[in-house]
Structures are given as structure tokens and as C-alpha cells.
């Protein structure tokens, strides 16, 4: 049975991956990754992430200051919506970073996502799961990819919590503490994402020098 | 039927000869030397059998040539894998673990799985030959996986070799498994499927081998980065 199945399974596995074998696309990805200016990329990322945090925080603070319960509820829901809407771009960006991480040959030591900085039960659970797996992972690359996955899980958990807060706020149940925790966790997770991007770029620290070398060779 | 079989065989040899000449003259051998060795072995053995059938149309020679071709195919798989990951220091340890695991499992499979045929020729055809081919399929699949996982820009000619060898070996191994299951009574059917497929493949290799070799150097930034990584 095994003699029948193994070659066929091998063929199926081959077909599953061979569609993605594109020399030109891979060469382009390497060019893109290596020609990025590390510091500039991290700065732009931080700015993008902070914009969403500021929006969520401002809506939350305005909601707190509102005197009418209905207006407070609407603003609280807007704050939670801002958190929820910020999640998809972060998740897809982490997916791209996971690809880069695989492409990077050598990475600096990786620390897991810090549980202490998180307040929501769901995001803490994701971070704890990531920390346990972190200690089981063997290579630096595995740990880095795992960290990105943990961040993705935590962001998704955050989105879930934020949706609950928004739904409750719309029917008059104002979960102030939970909304506060959502905004704080968004900040904490964004901090971790920036740190991960910095780490990725650190491993490409000589990019600027490479650029000069490449230009000279051209 | 004999005339048709003779014609198929002749076209096959022509395809292999053209492929070998193209691989050597167009410089594709630099992408995979084992492929040139494989073509030379297959062509040499086929010509020997055609020229001196009374001497080489025998069971022992069949076993010998199949063993040589299997080793050459395994060599192609190993060379493609080595060429793909050689410049990438981070990929090498992971690939080595896969390779060692595959070789250990294949060797254990060869040693401990009992032969299903009493005669050495039969056992070679239906037992050992499919096992070596299965190991080669998984070796090439592992190469494709590593290339996609680490985004390794593999040369087009090497990619073509993976594209052609793996599906052919899956078909051929399945045919050999059918032979083991139903006995040598269906050998005619197996030959009727395998030979035209292999001839088509050899013609395709010939066509590919005569395509000009493109300059497929690694991106400059990647190359300089890899040089620094050692």
C-alpha cells in the first residue's frame, strides 16, 4: 500500500508547490527586500501604526468626556471599530514579514511577544501560547516566524474583543475598561510589530553598504 | 507492431541524442552536469542493446542499466538540491536534515521491505526500482519545496528538469506497481504506455536543450549579500 501511495503523494505534493516556482518573482522579491532602507521602512511603519492608535484613542477619550450616554456609546463604538478596522492590514503585513523572515539567512536572537504588556484575556492567551511554542522552537528563524504568527493571533483576538465592545456599546452597555484594554493592547501589539520589523531590518543592517557595492558594480 | 516499436525506439534515441548534444553545446550542462551524464548513460545503453542485442538484451544488463539510470536520476535530484541551497547558509541545515531523513528512510525501506518476487530480475523491476524512484520523487519534491519556501531564484533549465522528471517518475512508478500487482502478463501494456511517454519526454528535452542559455545570474544585491554571509 505504501509503495502505491508514496510516489503518488510525492507527485501531489510536487504539484502543490511547483505552481509557485517563479524565478523572476523570487528575484524581484529579493531585490525589493534588500533594497529597502531599514530605518526608513521602520519609521514609515511606526507612523502608519500610530495613526490608527491615535484615532482609536481620540474616539475613546471623546467618548469618556461625553455627557450624553447615547453619544458616549456611539463614540465608544467608533473607537472599538477603529481597533477592529486596523487589524486586517496588520495581519496581512505580518504575513509578508513572515515571507521575508524565511528569506533572510541570518537573524538576530528573537524574544517572544511580551504577555505582561497585554490586558485582554484573549490577547494574553495568544501571547502565552506563543511563548510556550517559542521555547519548543529550535531555530532562530522558526522563533521569528512563530513570533509573527503569535502577533497575528493576538491581533485577531483583539479584533474579536473590539467587535464585542462595539456591539455592546451600540445597545447601551458601555464596557469602558474593556475598550481601554483594547486600545492599550493595540498599542502594545503595535510596539511588538515595530520591534519585529526592526529586528528584520537589523539582520539586513548592511543593506546600505550593499546598495553602494551594487551601484559600484553596475 | 515491430515496425512501430522500432520507429518509437529510433525516435527516442534521436531525441536523447539531440538532447545530449544540445545540453553540451548550448551550455545547459553547467546548470546540471548529472543530467548530461544521465542522457549519455541512457543513450549509450540503448545503442548498445540496439547494436548487440544478443549480448545486451539480457536480464543482467537490464538490471545493471536500470541501476545506473536510477543512480543518475538520484544524482540529478541531489545536484539540483545542492545547487539551489548552496549559496543560502540558513537553508542548508534544514535541507540537510530533510535529506538525511529521506536517505535513512529510503535505505531502511530497501533493506527491510521483503521482496515480492522470487527472481532477482523480477524483484529488481517491481521492488527495488520503484523504491529508488520514490526516493528520487521525494528528493525533487523537497527541492521544489525548499525553493518555494526560501524564495530561491532557480534557473529555468533546472526548473524544467524538476517539471519533467517528477511527473514522469510518478507515472513510471505507478506502472511498475501495476506490474507488481498484476504480474508480468501486463508488461506489454506497461511498455505501450511508458515508451511513447518517454519518447515524448526525450523530444521535449531535446527542444529545451537547444534553447539558448539565458543569463540567469542572481540579483546583484542578493549576490553581494550572499558573498558577505559566506
User: What share of residues are in beta strands of chain A?
Assistant: under 5%
Helix content of chain A: over 70%
| Distance from first to last alpha carbon of chain B | 59 Å
Largest interface: pair, residues per side: A-B, 38 and 49 residues
Structural class of chain A: mainly alpha
By oligomeric state, this entry counts as heterodimer
**Which H/E pattern describes the elements of chain A?**
HHHHHHHH
Low-confidence stretches of chain B: none
Keywords summarizing the entry:
heterodimer, A: 218 residues, mainly alpha, 8 helices, 82% helix, elongated, B: 230 residues, 9 helices
Structure description:
The complex is a heterodimer of chains A (218) and B (230). Chain A has 218 residues and is an all-alpha fold. In chain A, 82% of the residues lie in helices and 0% in strands. In chain A, helix 3 (38-65) packs antiparallel against helix 7, helix 4 packs antiparallel against helix 6 and helix 5 (121-136) packs antiparallel against helix 6 (140-170). The longest helix of chain A has 35 residues, at 69-103. Chain A starts with a helix and ends with a helix. The mean pLDDT of chain B is 87. Chain B is built from nine helices and no strands. Chain B is mainly α and 230 residues long. Chain B is globular and about 60 Å long. Chain A binds chain B through residues 3-4, 6-8, 10-11, 13-14, 17-18, 20-21, 23-24, 26-27, 29-31, 34-35, 99, 102-106, 139, 141, 204, 206, 210-211, 213-214, 217-218, and chain B through 88-91, 93-94, 113, 130-131, 133-134, 137-138, 140-141, 144-145, 147-156, 159, 162-163, 166-167, 169-170, 173-174, 177, 180, 216, 218-222, 224-226, 228-229.
